[in-house]
Amino acid sequence: MMERRRFLYGTALLLGSCRRRLNPPEDGGLCEASVKAAGPVTAAAPVIKQLNAWSIPWFVDRLPIPPVLKADGKRADPEAPGKMIPYFRVPLREVVAKVHRDLPPTRLWTYAGSFPGPTFDTRSGQALLVEWVNELPEKHFLPIDHNLCGAGADHAEVRTVVHVHGARVPPESDGYPENWYAPGASALHRYPNRQDAATLWYHDHAMGIERLNQYAGLFGTFLIRDEIEDALRLPAGEYEIPLVLCDRVFDLEGQLVYPASPNPDAPWVPEVYGDAVLANGKLFPYLEVQPRLYRFRVLNASNARFFELRLSSGQPMHLIGTDQGFVPAPIPLQTLQLAPAERADLLVDFSASAGQNVTLKSSYDLVQFRVAPSRGAAKAGAILPKALRPVPRTPAGDAVKTRFLTLNHNEAPHTHRKTLMLLNQSRWQDPVTETADFGTTEIWELVNLTDDSHPIHLHLVRFQILDRQPFLADFYTMRGQLRFGGPPQPPLPQDAGWKDTVRVDPNFVTRIIVKFDSYKGRYLWHCHILEHAANEMMRPFEVVG
């Protein structure tokens, strides 16, 4: 049902009818689709000849493992005079790389030449410095919509600023969308890492073109470890695999295609989906594994696609961590929904599948695991732990304030777009309305008045999901009053841990409880469907004291 909502709302879908085909089209892989209008049509809708992912061989490329980034030395810690901390210099560069054996090299934008970007492997409490250096071209190769907030033609065409998603950092290092820098410039960010072990990630966050920059390849994983994780004897080394998933559209020459509306003056589209799913930068790869326990750090880096992950063998995956770290104990799951920007720390035991192939699936196959026949190493070096890390629940009574915040799709007939996507009926540049006192706890009631499911991300903080409760959206629209359609629903098992991104479903009030105890300053919250965030579904908030 969630996938159906995503499909129905994605009216700007480049893929047209080909997106849901279960077999290759008779034309040998050529799918011609006209992009549907997202604004006034001033030119004929282009016919785009795109690659049909069903037409290429699957499981012919080995799953690559992104390299672990090495420090470029040490520098003085600006927060601790006399102390030296690791320093990383990370250039942002355009490269060409093969995403499939049978396709020509693809133009990509990368961190340090890697797609996805190299992995940061860090320790809790050990600060580091990263200089992000913009060495990208001065012209963008994807369609910029200059009508979007912060994307005016008077700005540099290529801009970037890096956000470490899930990091507790001071505001000057958070990657505020307006703090971008052009090619030839750089920014030095300090990451304190004063937080629990978790699977974080980093990505571009430049105002107005984040959706394009991430689509071009600007994202990677950022791991934090601590002593509690060390003591769990989890799979490590070659048995711990970062798995970054994203969907894309390619043309017949293997180049990225970003869907655009027929109006060249307003190319923004509401959502973007592709039939080609990449895992660690390869299309439908395979991985040779031993019949033993593995750990997968899974990230959904798609612009808009939700994944429903499951294994072809029918065996459960054991969820051991969510966005902000471990859950109290492993949770066996047959399926796992992963919204854009969400992460899942999974254990998979292949010991019962020796000599067989096991496929990670969503609506179709994603990655093939080729399990070796030998059972000799089935349990060596790692076990499925019985307990992980306590996650004490934050009592609702701790909250000093409850905020009622709506998610809205508004008609915008006098703009270049038919719809504005808003948080609490406010645009980005409106005055800040969410101001929290440092050290206090709040409940945010996210009231979804749209027909879509939105992954809402709060910068700086971690939170817990209290419940989800259905309400009558039409009654609220007519009367301005909230009438519930059923009792509160407790968090799903996969929502049991600390989160920084929450799925907010239509016709539901989703309640989260947040403590603002890290830093003071201005941050933001937004929908992580990147096309929504670009169209005003992004708002600043401020922590004061």
How does this model look, in words?
The protein has 545 residues and is mainly beta. It folds into three domains: 2-58 and 236-371, Immunoglobulin-like (Sandwich), CATH 2.60.40; 74-230, Cupredoxins -  blue copper proteins (Immunoglobulin-like), CATH 2.60.40; 396-544, Immunoglobulin-like. It contains five helices and 33 strands. The chain has helices at residues 2-9, 210-216, 227-230, 473-479, 530-534; strands spanning 30-34, 47-51, 74-76, 84-97, 106-111, 117-123, 128-134, 162-165, 186-191, 198-204, 219-225, 240-248, 276-279, 282-283, 286-289, 293-300, 307-311, 317-322, 325-333, 336-338, 343-349, 357-361, 365-371, 401-411, 419-423, 434-437, 441-448, 454-458, 463-470, 501-504, 508-515, 521-527, 538-544. The protein has a seven-stranded mixed β-sheet, with no helix packed on it. Strands 3, 4, 5, 7 and 9 form a five-stranded mixed β-sheet that branches. A hairpin with a 7-residue loop joins strand 3 and strand 4 (84-97). The radius of gyration is 23 Å and the shape is globular. It starts with a helix and ends with a strand.
